[in-house]
Amino acid sequence: MSVIEAARQPRARSRTAVKAPARTAQETTGLRIAAAMGLLDGPKTKHFNAKVSPKLFDAAARRIGTTSPAAVINAALASLATEDDLGPWLAKNWGVLADIPAELLDQIDL
Length: 110
Known about the structure:
Oligomer: single chain
Structural class: mainly alpha
Radius of gyration: 19 Å
Number of helices: 6
Shape: elongated
Order of helices and strands: HHHHHH
Largest sheet: none
C-alpha cells in the first residue's frame, strides 16, 4: 500500500478507545499525508521568523480554522512537502494526451 493510499484509509476505532479532544484546526490532506510519511514525527526544534502578507496569513488561517501561526505554518509546509505534480502535468500535457490513439489508451491500466 502506498503512503497516499494509507493516508486515505479510515482509521479503525475500538469501542474502548478514548475519544481524542476536539481539534481547533482542520486537519488538511497535506497534514494527513505528511503524518503517514513520518514527516511530523519527532521533536519540534526548527524555529524561524518570517514576515508574511496579513491577507495571505488570514486566508490560510480561515482555511484551516485557526489563527495559530504554528498551525498555519505547519499546514502550509505539509502542503508543500506532499504536493502532487499530477495536476500541473495534466494541464501541460492535455493536448498531447488527446492525440494518443484510443487503442493505446485502452492498454493503459488506470
